[in-house]
């Protein structure tokens, strides 16, 4: 099968994008996604997304982790697929599309490389020891620490993701250092089973957890730095519920090509 693909990245979280409105890409076989995402033998990416038609929405997003399995919601992927939809002429500057965790509204800059993506409302944040655990479309564990720059995110993230509590379903593990003006975040992602340069649902989970932790109420804007760049989270918090949650950041097309599998 010959596949025409596009490569996108959002703050260094990188994805293969395929226009599958004609349903020509058959995804019954995990191995195809695994092979395409492989950084040595394929194109290389943290995940693969299909843009498909949907009767009630501008388009539907299907997201696979680089291990070949259908993932839960991917925030940076969501931002990238909005940029891709604009590139294809499927949308203009605003959209309502469908993802695995439900409908999402997003708006995109005129240049097509900055996307504000609305995330699901959140009303439950649990604790695991000192860490926060919540689902922002994907499950996340959030632990605060110092000297995050030098921390072994791979070994420690992997150990938490595979402990007795999380082993079966898996979890994305986020470490956060409060730098005063911004939060510095590093994430070990399930489904990639490695540290990635950014995780959109992860930094969203971090921003909400830190607001609860610091007893912040009202309209909150949280600047975030990750290994691959800068992101911003905006939301309203009344002490119980997080609403109008937006993940804002860059989404860039890197290249396009053909590959046969
Ligand atoms: N990188 C993604 C998260 C992918 C979710 C995946 N790792 C899973 O838990 O299935 C993001 O930007 O939100």
TrEMBL record:
GO MF annotations in UniProt: diaminopimelate epimerase activity
Keywords linked to the UniProt accession: Amino-acid biosynthesis, Cytoplasm, Isomerase, Lysine biosynthesis
Catalytic residue list: 74, 199
Reaction equation(s) it catalyzes: (2S,6S)-2,6-diaminopimelate = meso-2,6-diaminopimelate
Subcellular location: Cytoplasm
The protein's enzyme class: isomerase
Pathway assigned in UniProt: Amino-acid biosynthesis; L-lysine biosynthesis via DAP pathway; DL-2,6-diaminopimelate from LL-2,6-diaminopimelate: step 1/1
PROSITE patterns: DAP_EPIMERASE
Record site: Could be important to modulate the pK values of the two catalytic cysteine residues: 140, 189
InterPro entries per record: DAP_epimerase_AS, DAP_epimerase_DapF
Binding site for substrate: 13, 65, 75-76, 172, 189-190, 200-201
Highest rank taxon of the organism: Bacteria
EC number(s) from the headed UniProt entry: 5.1.1.7
Claim: Cytoplasm is one of the keywords in the record: yes
Subunit structure: Homodimer.
Record's function text: Catalyzes the stereoinversion of LL-2,6-diaminopimelate (L,L-DAP) to meso-diaminopimelate (meso-DAP), a precursor of L-lysine and an essential component of the bacterial peptidoglycan.
Protein family: Belongs to the diaminopimelate epimerase family.
PANTHER family found in the cross-reference section: DIAMINOPIMELATE EPIMERASE (PTHR31689:SF0), DIAMINOPIMELATE EPIMERASE, CHLOROPLASTIC (PTHR31689)
Protein's recorded name: Diaminopimelate epimerase
Record organism: Pedobacter panaciterrae
Source taxonomy: Bacteria, Pseudomonadati, Bacteroidota, Sphingobacteriia, Sphingobacteriales
Gene: dapF
């Amino acid at each position: 099968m010959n596949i025409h693909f596009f490569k996108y990245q959002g703050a260094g979280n990188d994805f293969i994008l395929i226009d599958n409105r004609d349903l020509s890409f058959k995804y019954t076989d995990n191995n195809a996604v695994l092979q395409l995402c492989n950084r040595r033998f394929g194109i290389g990416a943290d995940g693969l997304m299909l843009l498909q038609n949907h009767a009630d929405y501008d388009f539907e997003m299907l997201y696979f982790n680089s291990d070949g399995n259908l993932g839960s919601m991917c925030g940076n992927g969501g931002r990238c697929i909005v940029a891709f939809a604009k590139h294809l002429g499927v949308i203009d500057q605003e959209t309502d599309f469908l993802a695995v965790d439900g409908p999402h509204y997003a708006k995109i800059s005129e240049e097509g490389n900055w996307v504000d993506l609305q995330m699901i409302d959140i009303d439950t944040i649990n604790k695991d020891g000192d860490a926060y655990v919540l689902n922002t479309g994907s499950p996340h564990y959030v632990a605060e620490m110092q000297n995050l720059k030098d921390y072994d995110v791979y070994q420690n993230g992997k150990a938490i993701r595979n402990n007795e509590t999380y082993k079966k379903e898996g979890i994305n593990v986020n470490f956060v250092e409060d730098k005063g003006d911004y939060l510095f975040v590093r994430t070990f992602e399930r489904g990639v089973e490695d540290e990635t340069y950014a995780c959109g649902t992860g930094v969203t989970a971090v921003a909400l957890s830190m607001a609860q932790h610091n007893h912040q109420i009202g309209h909150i804007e949280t600047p975030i730095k990750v290994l691959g760049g800068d992101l911003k989270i905006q939301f309203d918090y009344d002490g119980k519920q997080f609403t109008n949650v937006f993940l804002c950041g860059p989404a860039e097309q890197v290249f396009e090509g053909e590959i046969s599998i």
